[in-house]
Amino acid sequence: MEHVSRYYYQAKSMRESYRRVQELEAAGLIRREEIPVLGGKKLIRLTKLGVATAQENRTTEVPQGKRLDLTTLSHDSMVTHVRLRLEQLWDGEWFPERFLMQLPKLTQVADGLFRFPNGNHVAIELENSAKGHERFKTILSNHARQQCVLV
Fold first, then answer.
1. Rounded to whole angstroms, how far apart are CA atoms 4 and 44?
2. Which residue among 63, 89, 106 closes a domain?
3. Range of the domain at 3
């Protein structure tokens, strides 16, 4: 709910966020599932009808597997939290990892990056586990190439 409120309602009203989520639940488009790894917070997921509706009206891919990878879910939740918080402070445009992976010849990229109106970029990489030094060097090298492509 925090992500819904911040992203769609710019944290203006949690009450409005809950009202809208309840409307979508009543319409059978979404459901809330309690996920222990998120500290008991509920995850909002599309129903089959919600997936079908999103696919019909999409401007982007709507992936949703039946089984959740809890490690990925926890990581993505934290990345989303960081992104939404930084968007309150920065005027940059966000490019997610999925977009960055589509750039030519990049195999490892940051979780996302902000591009600012002046052309500067800031890469965001959030790690829950130890990664090798070479992986970070690869991400840094790829970030330099992304800047050239994104200008």
1. 9
2. 63
3. 1-63
